[in-house]
Amino acid sequence: MKAMQSDLLLIAAPTKAGEEFMKQIRLAGFPYVALTNNKMEKLKLEGQGVKKIIQVDTSLPGSPHIPDYPVGSIILFEESLTLCCRYIQICRSWTLGPMYVITQSVNPRLIYKGLGADYVIYSKNGDVKFLLSSLLQTNKLGSV
Predict the structure, then answer these.
(1) 73 touches 11 (CB < 8 A)
(2) Are 41 and 135 within 8 A, CB to CB?
(3) Is 110 left (phi over 0), alpha (psi -120 to 50) or beta?
(4) Which of 1, 97, 107, 117 is the most exposed place for a label (fewest CB within 10 A)?
(5) SS3 state of residue 144
(6) Separation between Cα atoms, residue 98 and residue 75, nearest integer Å
(7) Count of alpha carbons within 13 Å of 67, Cβ hemisphere only?
(8) What 3-state class would DSSP assign to 30?
């Protein structure tokens, strides 16, 4: 699987920093799909204007169905170690594109990398605006 121009950025943004990043992605016009594991967050995302949402059951063993959308890069904002690990396990098979984990803790770096994350970014405030230009190049997001 190779990243194509139609590939979408997949974002799990259960944190304030994640919500802000998703808002920036939306304002920039980048195509993306949001990832959640519960109905309340899905409703919240819909209320924020998110059009494409994948809701997965993180309590089930094994990998759930492959999404209807072609996935390019993946960005996971860490809310909890357990949830982030589960998202990595579920989503890693969906793309060969890079997977980023944004964390406020330095401790889980090797755990996330061991599960398949390509980049683990430590950020005290979760501000990763600098990723926008990298994602633009990697996914050719601006040309969709």
Answers:
(1) no
(2) no
(3) alpha
(4) 107
(5) coil
(6) 9
(7) 26
(8) coil
Number of residues that make up the chain:
144
Going by C-alpha positions, the residue among 36, 37, 38, 39 that lies closest to residue 19 is: 36
In the block, tokens 């309340």 appear at 40
Find the angle CA(122)-CA(126)-CA(129) to the nearest 5 degrees: 100
DSSP 8-class letter at 108: T
Query: Which residues are CB-neighbours of 134 under 8 A, at least 6 positions away?
Result: none
Count Cβ neighbours within 10 Å for each residue of 47-58 and write b for 16 or more, e otherwise.
eeebeeebebeb
Here the tokens at position 85 are 């690990």
Residue 91, φ and ψ in degrees, nearest 5: -85, -20
The per-residue pLDDT for range 65-88, each reduced to its tens digit, is 778 888 989 999 999 999 999 999
d(CA 55, CA 135): 23
**Could you tell me the two tokens for 118?**
């390509």
Provide the residue type at 67 as one letter. P
E-strand spans in the chain? 8-12, 32-36, 53-55, 71-77, 99-103, 119-122
More confident residue, 51 or 61: 51
